[in-house]
Specification:
10 helices, single chain, MetI-like fold, mainly alpha
Length: 281
């Protein structure tokens, strides 16, 4: 059976994301069991030790195991990204449906607010919000959430405005169905199809934005293993030949973003009915 490029991309993307999720789950367990050293302690280890059989990815400026911190960073990244994108979805989708269905003054007010947020550069808005909210996983997720709400709103609002003029919606209105029933029963399942694509692509972007915040020192505390923060700490050591403290966190971030992008492209092709949808299966 012929497997299209989009299908292969989706499978590779799903495999990569599943691998990161597995690492995120098992790393704290292995640390608790003593099979791996703690990601935040390493004072008994030599500092800036190159990769060896003892420390596969070397140690950082505090003697912490770079491999363990990179593995633990998977859980932190997925946790923040899932919180941010999930909250953005829960806020943006209902707002978009209500705005697109009701129209009028409510629609104009929401469109103006969301368009204002949408025009701001993602990283700049995230930096401002992270600075105002402070460091921490909930605060970082909240800062990223605000960035992505307008994207869900715009997509869902436009689709809702189109679908509400369909004959089946008008028929439901003529039979006395209320707005909430129509939104839930008829509009939701017709406008939600594009959300999985947006979710995966936003997740990929959120990994980069979180890394950018950490690199600027605005993301999470140093005690939290986070790839962007580790890259920030590694910046001063790279010119001295200590390459491993930057390579592995950066590579982990790149591969996760690549996997999420592959998954998003595959889902988009499948949803749009293109080559990603296996017509012969």
């Amino acid at each position: 059976m012929h497997v299209s490029l989009s299908t292969r991309m989706a499978r590779w993307g799903l495999a990569i994301v599943a691998f990161y999720a597995l690492v995120a789950v098992i790393t704290p367990v292995l640390i608790q069991l003593g099979a791996l050293p703690d990601a935040n302690t390493g004072l008994s280890n030599p500092i800036f030790e190159p990769p060896t059989w003892t420390h596969w990815c070397g140690t950082d400026r505090l003697g912490r195991d770079v491999c363990v911190r990179t593995m633990a960073g998977s859980g932190v990244a997925l946790q923040v990204v899932l919180l941010a994108v999930g909250l953005a979805l829960l806020i943006g989708v209902p707002l978009g449906m209500v705005s697109g269905y009701l129209g009028g003054a409510v629609d104009r007010m929401l469109v103006l607010l969301m368009d204002t947020l949408y025009t701001l550069p993602v990283l700049l808005l995230s930096v401002v919000l992270a600075f105002l909210l402070g460091k921490g996983i909930p605060n970082a997720a909240a800062a990223l959430c605000v960035v992505y709400v307008p994207q869900y709103f715009r997509v869902v609002r436009n689709q809702t405005a189109q679908v509400k003029s369909e004959l089946f919606v008008e028929a439901a209105q003529s039979l006395g169905a209320g707005p909430l029933w129509i939104l839930r029963r008829y509009l939701f399942r017709n406008v939600i199809t594009s959300v999985p694509v947006l979710l995966t692509l936003n997740a990929a972007d959120a990994v980069l934005v979180l890394g950018g915040l950490g690199f600027l020192g605005l993301g999470l505390p140093e005690t939290v293993p986070e790839w962007g923060g580790d890259l920030n700490l590694a910046l001063a050591a790279v010119p001295t030949g200590v390459w491993w403290t930057a390579l592995y966190p950066g590579l982990a971030m790149f591969i996760l973003v690549l996997g999420l992008s592959f998954l998003g492209e595959g889902i988009e092709a499948w949803v749009s009915g293109g080559e990603g949808r296996p017509a012969s299966e």
